[in-house]
Write a structure and sequence with these properties.
The protein has about 375 residues and is of the alpha/beta class. The protein contains twelve helices and 16 strands.
């Protein structure tokens, strides 16, 4: 039977789960809160979230903290407890062994090894189970994991930083800086919450970026840097290559190519990933996503450039759009944030649903769900 405080503790579990985003792939990021009710008043005795690399799991962390206080308590979990034996034992069994009396779960785990078995295992042992509280929020939080399991691709967030008229650079290519420092810091936070960041080879050549997370205290949260580089054009002296031994760098490239350059990249610590040629001999976005998903990527941040962004939009593979707009006008001779989308009729235009619009310094960040 639902309790009046259930919603509050489940929202806490979801907040805890969000802490692990970008660090737990290919596993989901889960939050768990354990409470006891003594004297009619609930209080937290344990909490946890999935740790880097996917282990320990949230339930394990919370149970360790709760210790003997877990017996007879209620556990709130943002995702169904696992029911299979992996590198560690099933979390559902750990909850049973600890004497948890009640489990409130937000949503079932889509992994075929679980998919309802965790809840069933708990109920079979007499644990009261309630499912579905904050299910939409839980699915959104772990949307990358759900897509990884169901469609063999990561959640794709397209990030754009432009002037008010949609330009990312002047006609001569000058772009530093369109947005302000606060907006750029928010962009770095987005990097920390994704497993990998993807740019095209032209952007990598022109901007010579590092693509790391440079927020104080979050340097270890830098995502895997990925460059879509069909013909290995990236300079061997670029910042990306020179830092490949510190932060992983993957190059998505067509099979074959210059064997000397391939060897040179590998000697620098770069991982080369061959992507079969798709339409017209190019690397198709859907194939790139399948390849990344097969390597455990569940959340991908696409940062540019215009052609790469448009190719993902044309393929209907962008799930979320984060658009930073600066209160500046560059004009029609500036470089557009997007290349051609091939739209002939309005019904072909991607539908965007605004989730949030916030002021960050002088700039505005609008985030959208993209309905494909």
């Amino acid at each position: 039977m639902p309790r009046p405080y259930d919603l509050s503790y489940m929202k806490t579990a979801l907040l805890l789960a969000a802490r692990g985003l970008g660090r737990t792939a290919p596993n989901p990021s889960v939050g768990c809160v354990i409470i006891r009710v003594d004297g009619g008043r609930p209080h937290v005795v344990g909490r946890g979230w999935t740790q880097p690399g996917g282990r320990p799991h949230a339930e394990t962390q919370a149970l360790k903290q709760a210790a003997e206080a877990a017996r007879g308590a209620t556990a709130y979990v943002s995702l169904e407890p696992c029911a299979h034996q992996g590198k560690t034992g099933p979390c559902a069994q750990a909850l049973i062994d600890a004497g948890i009396a009640r489990v409130v779960g937000a949503v079932s785990d889509p992994d075929p090894r679980v998919a309802g078995r965790g809840f069933a295992m708990l109920e079979k042992q007499g644990v009261e189970v309630e499912e579905g509280l904050c299910s939409d929020e839980a699915r959104q939080l772990n949307a990358g994991f759900f897509l990884h399991v169901s469609e063999n691709r990561p959640l794709v967030t397209l990030k754009i930083a432009s002037s008010l008229d949609g330009r990312i650079a002047t006609h001569g290519g000058h772009s530093k800086w369109i947005t302000g420092e606060a907006a750029r810091q928010r962009g770095h936070l987005m990097r920390a919450m994704n497993d990998a960041i993807l740019v095209g080879s032209s952007t990598a050549l022109l901007d010579d970026p590092l693509l790391d997370c440079r927020l104080p205290g979050l340097a270890d949260r830098s995502p895997i840097r990925v460059v879509a580089d069909s013909h290995l054009r990236l300079s061997l002296t670029s910042k990306l290559v020179r830092s490949a031994t510190d932060v992983p760098l993957w190059l998505l490239t067509l099979p074959g190519g210059d064997s000397v350059r391939r060897a040179a990249f590998k000697d620098c610590g770069v991982t080369l990933i061959d992507v079969p040629a798709g339409h017209k001999g190019f690397m198709d976005p859907d194939i790139m996503l399948n390849v990344l998903s097969s390597r455990g990527i569940t959340r991908l941040l696409v940062e540019g450039g215009a052609r790469l962004a448009s190719s993902f939009l044309r393929a209907r593979l962008v799930d979320r759009l984060a658009w930073f707009q600066a209160p500046k006008l560059i004009g029609g001779d500036g470089q557009s944030a997007l290349a051609t989308l091939g739209v002939e009729r309005m019904e072909q235009v991607p539908e965007l649903v605004l989730r949030e619009s916030v002021q960050i310094g002088a700039d505005t960040l609008s985030t959208y769900i993209v309905r494909n």
